[in-house]
Design a protein that fits this description.
Length: 206
């Protein structure tokens, strides 16, 4: 399997604030060449709530055929891809942080030597409020979207859980601590277990 770098997969339901926390961590890691944040490629125009590269569906299909993506998946009527360039970062020993679907976690664990999965979550009422505030027509029925995105497959083992319900800075700090190792994300990821919640008990330190 590919190493020695780490692949940190950030997963969670729509509206949990995954991109918000990742953006905050990216700013916190500014100037740190040991951490990489690849831009996702999506078959949907970018917005103020989601900054990414865009391909139409035909171009995305051609990119799949050409082997352009390390990981790709389909969700909510769109396709998402993580560029193959992350493998250069992993070979170089860097930590790669990306927002992905839980449906590809098992495939990633089988391909990369050091994978850690961080589940970002929040109560349904908060998820609904966040989705409604971004007013994106492609989200469709919000309750159905949340129901689909909260279904955990049997192969999706998450190693840590962040309940993103307080100030944004708190969630960012917790994720940053995990990525930098002070939250015990260093080393190979756990192979079993339900994940450890960071909002209580074994928390990352501020």
């Amino acid at each position: 399997m590919l190493g020695p770098g780490r692949l940190v997969l950030v997963v969670g339901p729509s509206g949990a604030g995954k991109d918000t926390l990742i953006d905050g961590v990216r700013q916190g890691c500014a100037g740190d060449s040991t951490v990489a944040f690849p831009r996702r490629v999506i078959t949907r125009p970018a917005s103020a709530f989601e900054d990414h590269d865009t391909l139409n569906r035909d171009a995305f299909d051609r990119a799949i055929t050409a082997g352009t993506f390390a990981l790709w998946w389909e969700a909510h009527g769109n396709r998402y891809g993580i560029p193959l360039a992350i493998e250069d970062d992993i070979r170089a020993g860097r930590t790669v942080v990306c927002n992905v679907s839980r449906t590809i976690v098992d495939a990633a664990r089988g391909r990369y030597a050091n994978v850690a999965v961080v589940l970002i979550t929040a109560p349904e009422r908060i998820l609904l409020a966040r989705l409604a505030s971004r007013e994106r027509g492609s989200d469709g029925n919000l309750r159905r979207r949340i129901a689909r995105s909260t279904e955990l497959g049997p192969s999706c083992r998450h190693d840590f859980v962040i309940r993103n319900v307080g100030p944004r800075a708190v969630g960012i700090r917790r994720l940053l601590n995990l990525i930098r190792g002070s939250g015990s994300l260093a080393g190979p990821s756990s192979s079993s277990g339900p994940g450890r919640p960071l909002q209580q008990g074994r928390q990352s330190k501020p």
